[in-house]
Amino acid sequence: MTRVNEMFTHKIMRLAALLAALAVGVASPPAVRAQNVGETTRSAALATPDALAGRATFADLVTLAERSGLVVRVQIRRQVTLEPERAPGLDAGFARLYVEADTLALIAGGSTIGESLVYLVDVPLTPKGKAPKLKNREMLLFANLSGRGPGGAAQLQLAGPSAQLAYSPALEQRIRPILTSLFAPDKPPVITGIRDALAVPGSLVGESETQIFLATQDRSPASLTVLRRPGQPPAWGVSWGEIIDSSARAPEFETLRWYRLACALPESLPSSANLARDPAARQLAASDYAYVINALGPCARAITRAPAR
Fold it and tell me: pTM for this structure?
């Protein structure tokens, strides 16, 4: 072994020890909610950076972005496969890599990371049982800054086992509007459940109004309104404020406001939240809530699991 290789190997061992605390970034995510359609899979064929990028849904990208303090476009300069004893929790069929990369663009994040960075990532083995060669490949990383290594390189902790995606301009175009929404001053709050729901029949047959008040992480007001008029299809909307707007509209599909509802609301209206005592009014509230859930559609996931609430 040459002197250069010995020095590099020594550096890798030191950094591997420093990065051991980052194993959470490549560990299994929390349990998935029943509403999710897709689930994270550790199948080797579906876990390559290219497969992850191709399979990622809107909900996946929002989830990764919200878990991350940094979204970075990088080019891999060097990789080293860690020995199994230095890779606790590694799934069968995978290798854990120590990666050195050049920063090509900081797409989002308030931290200064510099021109180079290092991180750990689990990647599926090739059909020959070897770690894939990723040198010179461009990746999009969802990560958090954990410190500085020797030489000042930023040490990153990936936001999850699917947080290294093969970069493409199309993927960047998908993630940028999401990041813009997440950093907007008027971004919708995180929904944590249902507070109350009340259906009130109108004076005409077939006329009613149902209001559903949502619980939010920051305790800011949010509510759903479902209006029924004789001879017309039901109309529903969401209000993000103190004023309940009967003319509020439903959120557009695959926007952050849609995600907040579709990926957080329970499948059915909790009985304890239904304030009506009359059986017919209780059934109306439950039916109107089901109408909203059906209109939102499923929160499809393929490479992430829902955040724990």
Answer: 0.86
